[in-house]
């Protein structure tokens, strides 16, 4: 037996078991990957995103205060003093507390269990002041179920980062709004160019590491240019940095810069 053969035998003898264990672990992880992704995203939604929603309460109060002054284009709703509002990315329903009584809500979310959560879940009593008109499974890039000019208000908060097509979603938002209707948004945006965090946002997004774990979220998306270009009559916005305690500070560092604004159809 040659020295090369002896070397190969020694390698296999010494490391064969380790290689076998490693391959077994890789195969096991690949099989469980879909369930792992689902679990990580669920924890993210019910943990970090809820904490972010709490930190954003002052900003949301400022943004949503205009809802009490909106008059519906629908004659029936107008006679009852109600409006029709469409929210893309309902998540855990943290925005619903800011909606006026008897608001007719059309919710759009990729969560198949959203109807069960809003209507029959442990927190359903917190949503009882609104009327859930319809719940649509999707991300907002296609709203063919909604007629043109049908809703008075569209809301997105930390949702545009994870839609399949930003341009299609904004076109749909513009289409379903009634003339004079309002699009209210709070969306996280990247850090300034040249910073380490901006580089990290690009790497995690473009390698698909972050989107694969956190519901398709892309940390390098800045939607304001697209919002301005979609055809709204008037767009105003401000920039703010979200600060405060969260259980996952690294997540907040990567998505702390936000734009808050209103676009009028």
UniProtKB/TrEMBL annotation:
<dbReference type="Pfam" id="PF08241">
    <property type="entry name" value="Methyltransf_11"/>
</dbReference>
<feature type="transmembrane region" description="Helical">
    <location>
        <begin position="12"/>
        <end position="30"/>
    </location>
</feature>
<dbReference type="InterPro" id="IPR029063">
    <property type="entry name" value="SAM-dependent_MTases_sf"/>
</dbReference>
<dbReference type="InterPro" id="IPR052356">
    <property type="entry name" value="Thiol_S-MT"/>
</dbReference>
<protein>
    <submittedName>
        <fullName>Methyltransferase-like protein 7A</fullName>
    </submittedName>
</protein>
<keyword id="KW-1133">Transmembrane helix</keyword>
<feature type="domain" description="Methyltransferase type 11">
    <location>
        <begin position="86"/>
        <end position="185"/>
    </location>
</feature>
<dbReference type="GO" id="GO:0008757">
    <property type="term" value="F:S-adenosylmethionine-dependent methyltransferase activity"/>
</dbReference>
<dbReference type="InterPro" id="IPR013216">
    <property type="entry name" value="Methyltransf_11"/>
</dbReference>
<keyword id="KW-0812">Transmembrane</keyword>
<keyword id="KW-0472">Membrane</keyword>
